[in-house]
Structure formats: C-alpha cells, structure tokens
Design goal:
24% of the residues lie in helices and 23% in strands. The chain has 339 residues and is an alpha/beta fold. α3 links the parallel β9 and β10. α1 crosses α7 and α2 crosses α3. The longest helix has 15 residues. The N and C termini lie far apart (44 Å).
Amino acid sequence: MAKLEELKPPSSNSDSSSSAELIENCFGYLKLYSDGTIFRSAEIKHKSTIQENPSVIWNDFLFDPLHNLNLRIYKPKKDPKSPNHKQLPILFYFHAGGFCFGERFYPNPHNSSLSLCSGLQSVVISPDYRLAPESRLPAAIEDGFTAIKWLRDSDFQTLTWLSDVEIDFDRVFVFGDSSGGNIAHHLAVRLGRGSPELKPIRVRGYILLSPFFGGVLRTKREEEKPYENFWSQEIYDQLSIPHGANVDHPLVNPFGASSPSIEGLRLDPFLVMVGGDEVMRDRVEDYAMKMKASNHQVQYVEFEGKQHGFFTSYSYLEESKNLIQLVKDFISKNSSSII
C-alpha cells in the first residue's frame, strides 16, 4: 500500500534523495515513486484568489466521519424586504482536480460554488472526496454517493443554520466539474431515473462540465495537444485508475471494451458542456453523442475558444454568466418531469 510522507514543498530538494524511480510528477506538488512512496506538498500556490459574495453565506459540515470528509453548504442570503418564499433547489457541486487535487475551500471550487449559489438561487453543497493516488478510483465515486446519502439521512431539514430558507428536496441536481463530471456520470448510472433509493430526496438531472474520461485509443485532439495548464492525460495513466488497470477501465472510459452497456437504462437528463479549445473536447463530444445513441436525454454545449477550467478559474467574471444561465434553464426545464 502506498505510504504518505510529510515532506517539504516542491521548492525544496528534500525528496530527491529517494533511490526509487520517479514515475509521475504533477506540477511539482504531487510525486509518485516506483516503490509506492507518495510526496504530496502541503503548500499549493493557487492562481485564483478567494472571492467574496455578500449575497451568499456558507458553512461546513462533517458528512463522513470514517474518512473525515467534510462538505460546504452555500445558501443565498435572505432579503428581509422580499416577500418571496420560493423553495430553493439543491445543487451538488463535485470539484475538479484530476481526482488528485482539490478541496472544498480551494479558491476555484469555493468561487464556483458562490457563483452558482448566487446565480441559480439554489442551495449548493460542495463535498470533499478522497484523493488519488492515496485513494484510487472508485474511492471518489463512493464518497460522492456517501455525500448524497448524507442529505437523505441527516436531519437536514431541522438544521438551525438552514432554518431561514425553504428547500425543495424533490429538486436535487448534480453538477460535476472535470473529475467531478466523471463522478456525476457514475452517480447517474448508479441511482437511475428518479433516484428511488434516495427517497424522499430526488435527483432530477446531471450537469457535466468537461467530464474527465479517458481511453486507450487517443482522440485526435489528445494526440495533437496532450497537455494544458490544468490537465494531463498521465494523471489517469499513473495516478487515478485502480491498480493493474488501464485507461479503458469502466470507471475511466464509460464506453470502453469492458464497460457494461448503459443502453436500456432509465437515466435522468444530462447537460454536457466543454470548452472548444480543450484537450478533452473530442472525448467529451464523443461521450455526449454515445449517450444520445443509447437513448438518453443529453444537451451538449460547446464554448468556443475556451480551455479546461474556463469556468472554475473565472466563475465570478461576466463571461461565466452564460454557463450559469444554461444550468439555470436546465434546472427549470427538468424540475417538474414525471418518471
């Protein structure tokens, strides 16, 4: 089993004395060695900064004591002058990070959650999940399921902190960004249409932004441009997939040779979005087309000229309002569907 070493930040050469071969180096912050040793820096420099949004307030809650996992809940600040008592939908937001990086309090997921909460007028729940390579797939997917079960099983409706907002537990949506989009896909397949095992909670739709899928057969875009500032195919190849598997594993490639068919399954609707200049653009489009061919309801949107992380890095800017409006329209359209 891999062991975690508490070492100095990557600016130090303290980890270079290891006799093991360096297998993977992610931005200097995460290193995997041939003997299973893992170096993970406790100090990560973020290009984005924490933004403030006075229209939103948030709080943290422990949802998985076994793995010490927390989630952050965001709610719109109530306007005392407004008589509107409209029930708010719930949006689960699973952050990006290649399954290897990210926590709810990082600038990108925090800023994105603020923007989604404010723009959608929705309660947003942003869970942490176990990270690879210490915890490889399916750990993150299992944690996503645990987070949604927490909503079902907790005394959520009587939490004092949420007593000033009215919540519609019949309108839950799942938003997954990059690796979070992978989690969202597998949750959709596991829960099925109407999420009957979550009653009285009901998931009505899934939003996948640049979902992080892979495959042995590279797409044209992956061959031409295998790297971006925030993306690398090798994160899958070495760090995230189960031991002994390759990138055609069903958890990585939903339409790989060994992946079970999803044709005939009854699933809730999908909104799939991707940047037009992303490395993953071809793979995401292929995923959306194959989902449609399997008789699932999929809306596919491409943002011309945008690279990976275009929303999460700039979720508070004007250019991200189009994406939020698409999500708002998707929620509105699928809030009253009948199973």
